[in-house]
Here is the input.
Amino acid sequence: MGVMDEKMQNTRRTTDRSSLFIRGFSYVFIGAFSLCCLLPFLLVLGTSFTSEASVKQSGFNFWPKEFSTFAYRIVLENPTQILGSYAVTIGITVVGTAIGLLIVAMTGYALQRPDFLFRNKISFFIYFTTLFSGGLVPFYLLMTQYLHLKDNYLAILLPGLLSPFLIIMMKSFVRSIPHAITESAKIDGAGDFTIFVKLILPMTTPALATIGLFIALGYWNEWYNSMLFLSSDMQFRPLQLYLYNVVTKADAIRNSAAASNVPLSDVPIETMKMAIAVIATGPVILFYPFVQRYFIKGITVGAVKG
Amino acid sequence: MSVLTEKESSMDLADKRTGSWWKKFKNNRTLLIMCLPAIVFFVIFAYLPMPGLYLAFIKYNYSDGIFNSPFVGFENFRFLVITGDLWKLTFNTVAYNLAFILLGNVLQIFVAVLLNELRGKWFKKISQTLMFLPHFISAVLIGLIAYNILSYDYGLLNGILQSLGMEPVKVYSTPNAWPFIIVLTYLWQATGYGSIIYFAAIMGLDNEVVEASEIDGANAFQRIRYIVLPWLKPTFIILLLFSLGGVLKGNFGLIYNLVGANNTALYATTDIIETYVFRSLMTNFNFSLGSAVSLYQSLFGFAIVLTANWLVRKLSPENSLF
Here is the structure.
């Protein structure tokens, strides 16, 4: 019946000239906009496979005028730097996501329990942090002078664990589970934590995937705290800080190339920036089409309330 | 639902009878413990820095520390007002955010409505995937992409201009170009992902209403104008008000990575509250001035959120934050 309706509707729409016009326009506009979203990435990719001489002569381009893998060869010839950065970023992402997800899930569930007496007080306590903050300077002093986290990976790991936004998102997900399930388990004598682990967690796996991906993406793309708290002479910097240093400081490039036997004047500065960008971003771009539905779920659920 | 209220009221009764605070605590102990890590997190990373805003009222120097540096009252604020910095920062921050919010939402609605008109399943899927792509990359890469296009020596833009026989442009020393560049980059990054909310809202539109309008002879323009857009209006207003609440919070990652750390030539049009505070911490070491700006931002921003929320509560109470 539903399929029939849809078919009828479609035939009616095709006969309408204004519909045809709008549909045509939609294809053109959406197609063009999608292309605009893709092209800059191709620009970076294309340049990374271009010879430095050709870049110096005719600039960055989508398609290599003179194909070359020299930039990649230099980066990968002495892979310690990039592999170290990968290891640091992957380590922080995995550990941080696991811990953060557990905390967000526990808190979100507890705060959604109607029989939890302190739920409103704690919810407000958490929400208030989005309204008022101490700002960057006191945060920096706390992290460096009181917690002594300068040049410590914990300075990246800890602040990224959770956010009010993610807890609110978890609450929205949990809201769809009937409270009666918790109640009947309580009558059977199960403790709150057991209910959470044995009943609620298995029922919220899509939510956990969504929240976990949000946390993981945050860690993967993290550069701000890295820039604040990790000095650039640290041996293994997280990927994005490594990329940031390479992009903003020509010295950083020369340092990365120093291990290879290429004379300093021949170091392909511009194309190496692009090659490192491709290596640092590639996994996210290749991976995300498979998980984008979770991000879609996250924003539609999270947007309902705050 | 009735079971739930019954249970709650019987619990209340039990509490009243025993009347003990300890009993309440014991009943909720496990849930409280489950919240504890998050509470500790926010205490450390959000609440502990707050008293640090005291820095705004002293003339901080490193050797004396926070407690021995001289107290100067509102001197830091006075300085910010006299130099015109406070006004400039507020203007830039608010203007950028208004452009992001207004143009962003309009474009997101536009894209969502057009997406809904597409029929090809694959085209829709692939275009959505491509439009989300910019949302998933780091701000650092966005800075690099901009450099790819705008660089004076090798940038794509100058390559195109030169092949057309025109003079190359020095974008990185042209302050007036940057509001456009920053807003365009924001739209490039945020439109696809932001359109999801509106697209989901359109999906919730009752198909019968649409069909009825077509039977009544409405054409596609009329359908969009009189059915789809009014349907999106509440979502639009709520999202608008929520974002307006954050109008004083600048997009540091975007602007910092686009403009670069020390490009003083562009400050007039690109300096926002966050970049100023960042510089006061990392390059000028004027912690007190930075904190004064932060305190101003937090207090003023708080007032704006309260106003926005008051408006939301008037328009649609179920969506208000508190």
